[in-house]
Amino acid sequence: MAYSKDKPYNDLPLLPPDNSVFERVSIYKKLAQARAALAELKGRLPIIPNPYMLINTLVLQEAKDSSEIENIFTTADELYRAFTSNRKNIDPATKEVISYRDALWEAFKKQKELSSWNLEWIVEIFRTVTERDESLRSMQLYIGNTYNTVYTPPEPGDILTEKIDNWLDFEDTLDKIDPLLKMALLHYQFEAIHPFSDGNGRTGRILNVIYLTSQSLLELPVLYISKHILEYKTEYYRLLTEVTETGEWEGWILFMLEAVYQTSIFTLGKVNAIYDLFNRITNIVKEQAEEIYSREFIEIIFSEPYSKVKMLVDNKIASRNTASKYLNRLSDLGILEPIQVGNENLFLNKDLYEILAQS
Questions:
Q1: Is the dihedral of CA 37, 215, 225, 301 positive or negative?
Q2: Which CATH number covers residue 294?
Q3: Residues 265 and 348 in one domain
Q4: Residue 8 counted as domain residue
Q5: What angle do CA 106, 110, 113 make, to 5 degrees?
Q6: Is residue 284 part of a domain?
Q7: Would you tell me how many other CB atoms lie within 10 Å of the CB of residue 113?
Q8: Cα separation, 36 vs 100, whole angstroms
Q9: CA 163 to chain centre
């Protein structure tokens, strides 16, 4: 049956495609470039004194950009304040971005315990992202608007189950396909299957970076892929459609490899800038406020752009009164900026925020 955007794409081909898909000089060249950039990023991550600080900094920015692809908008400042504060009365868009971050972090931790990916784990990611208590969709979706359907994914039931089972089998199969190429195939197929009633794009983009960590191409899920997809959103959707309508994979694979290449360079720049700033502030505190210096304290004010007394207390760095004095001392030095948010006193690491906010 010929493909029609108005009818369920039940004939979506199973993975993998024919090997001739990869036998293009253009793909080999771009693959080498992307792998080199990603390897440099991986090798540089250990310079951060506490690499897990990147989860709360770079990953929140990734969450913000990924949500913007779905037309969920919040400002970086609203996002960082909400994440550090008690999260009460935050707007729906900011709440959805934080849910994305939580889903990514929980998926990363859980993935390390899995012998292989499974549907239950992916459903858990979807539920955290969307806050919906659902599983695979039970109704037919039509992607587009009232006047124009642009794509109709496979119908629910046995066909949808067959497609997602094949997707999981392909992810888990040991083969000679380079992991970066496999990520591109998996991402297309996941979006084409569209297994959930909502949140497929966000769930799929989480799976991209988790897959790279599962293949040991990164130690932490900090690759900022959504930045490239957001900047070239029209091209992203055009190439997805091209694979569906014509079976032409080359443009799509090149796009995803370019996304890995560009965002590896971009994320590396962030890592280096954070490292330089960490050392600069460490030296300032040692020289001008040695009485409050500890490595753990400096790491706390780099774990998120905003800090608060409770973070120091919870990490056993200081008692409540002493913690307040520590943070105010850094404010006196111009390192932190005190800001009142509701009933809470937050302290903004201004230079860290500037590094993260730069696009």
A1: negative
A2: 1.10.10.10
A3: no
A4: no
A5: 165
A6: no
A7: 7
A8: 28
A9: 24
Which CATH number goes with the domain that contains 213?
1.10.3290.10
pLDDT tens, the chain, 359 aa long:
679 999 999 999 999 999 888 889 999 999 999 999 999 999 998 888 777 677 767 666 766 676 676 666 555 566 666 656 655 667 776 777 778 888 988 999 999 899 899 999 999 999 999 999 999 999 999 998 778 999 999 999 999 999 999 999 999 998 889 999 999 999 999 999 999 999 999 899 999 999 999 999 999 998 888 889 888 999 999 999 999 999 999 999 999 999 999 999 999 998 999 999 999 999 999 999 999 999 999 999 998 888 999 999 999 999 999 999 999 999 999 999 998 877 788 899 999 988 888 76
Domains held by the chain: number: 2
**Peptide bond before residue 338 is cis, with ω within 30 degrees of 0:** no
Tell whether 174 and 53 lie within a shared domain.
yes
State how far the Cα of 257 lies from the Cα of 187, in Å rounded to an integer.
12
Q: Would you state the structure tokens that stand for residue 214, as one six-digit string?
A: 């599962």
Q: 236 and 110 in one domain?
A: yes
Q: How far apart are CA 3 and CA 153, in angstroms?
A: 11
Q: In angstroms, rounded to a whole number, what is the distance separating the alpha carbons of residues 254 and 27?
A: 6
Domain that holds residue 228: 19-270
Q: Which amino acid is at 203?
A: T
Cα gap 246→301, rounded to integer Å? 51
Q: How far apart are CA 202 and CA 211, in angstroms?
A: 14
